[in-house]
Amino acid sequence: MSEEPEKAAWRGGPSQLVNLPAFVASAVVASIFFVVGPRFPEVQNYIMLGALIPALWAGWKWLTVRCHRFEISTERLKMFEGVLNRSVDEIELYRVKDTQIQQPILYRLFGLGHVILETSDRSHPKATLNAIKGPREVGEILRREVESLRDKKRVREVDFDESGDSEFGDELG
Predict the structure, then answer these.
(1) Count of other CB atoms within 10 angstroms of residue 99
(2) Would you say the C-alpha torsion 113, 29, 31, 67 has a positive or negative sign?
(3) Which of 98, 146, 149, 173 is the most exposed place for a label (fewest CB within 10 A)?
(4) Residue 148 in contact with residue 96, Cβ under 8 Å?
(5) Distance of alpha carbon 76 from alpha carbon 91, whole angstroms
(6) Helix count (H) and strand count (E) of the chain?
(7) Is 55 exposed, middle or buried (0-12, 13-18, 19+ CB in 10 A)?
């Protein structure tokens, strides 16, 4: 029996729209420095230099979102994070129990949304793909890959309620 190599089914990352509040706040603070600076000619250069701080902060926020990536492969969801120190979190697709799509109104205007995954993974019981383009399509790709992997590995998810009964009733015991 030959093992097929793992292939990427989808790659993407969050939109910079998540940074809109930070970008607006940075622009407001920087403009305050530019307005106040000329009123104090003796320290104008230092005040203008202060406008650099919100610009650097906005640049860092941009870079942080730019370095956050998601990949759905035929076997797992990989989440890459970090600018200087990189971390990669992986969730086996057969552990995905449920998906939910959320599209706040501002994100909907831009065709963006969140795909929220409920999993049986202990380290990531809930995983979120934030502000991604085409969340419904990504959710469908995810569903298709989860089902395909479960069939391939012959894995089924069985939930037990708090009383210890499974979803199958008394069939198991």
Answers:
(1) 19
(2) negative
(3) 173
(4) no
(5) 5
(6) 5, 7
(7) middle
From 16-20, 24-28, 44-48, the region with the lowest mean pLDDT = 44-48
Domain ranges for the chain, please list them.
8-21+64-153
User: For 122-153, what is each residue's pLDDT tens digit?
Assistant: 998 999 999 999 999 999 999 999 999 998 88
| Sign, CA torsion 85/91/93/97 | negative
Task: Read off the pTM.
Answer: 0.81
**3-state DSSP helix/strand/coil % of the chain, to nearest 5:** 45, 30, 25
Q: What is the fold, at CATH topology level, of the domain defined by 8-21+64-153?
A: PH-domain like (2.30.29)
What does the alpha-carbon distance between residue 35 and residue 23 come to, in Å, rounded to a whole number?
18
